[in-house]
Amino acid sequence: MPEDINPEPTEVEDEDVDVVAHGQGEEAIDSESGCIINNSSAL
Predict the structure, then answer these.
(1) What is the spatial distance between Cα 3 and Cα 31, in angstroms, rounded to a whole number?
(2) Among candidates 22, 24, 28, which has minimal Cα distance to 36?
(3) Rounded to whole angstroms, how far apart are CA atoms 20 and 16?
(4) CA atoms of 37 and 43, how far apart (whole Å)
(5) Could you report the per-residue pLDDT of 1-43, keeping only the tens digit for each?
(6) What local confidence, expressed as pLDDT, does residue 42 receive?
């Protein structure tokens, strides 16, 4: 069985979630919606 069947992209997803959760940047990309959200304007 190839190892590709059991990939663990947890680190990559974690990074994306971290960036959106922290919102350090003014433009945060929501992985769920896939749209660019401006924290300063939206909130």
Answers:
(1) 26
(2) 28
(3) 6
(4) 9
(5) 556 666 665 555 555 555 555 445 555 555 666 666 565 554 4
(6) 46
CA 3/CA 12 separation, integer angstroms: 18
CA 13-21-14 angle, to 5 degrees, is 15
Query: Which pLDDT score, from 0 to 100, does residue 31 have?
Result: 60
Q: What is the DSSP string of 1-43?
A: --GGGS--THHHHHHHHHHHHH--SSEEE-TTT--EEEHHHH-
Spatial distance between the Cα atoms of 18 and 23, rounded to a whole number of angstroms? 8
Residue the block writes with tokens 């919102």: 23
Q: What is the pLDDT of residue 16?
A: 53
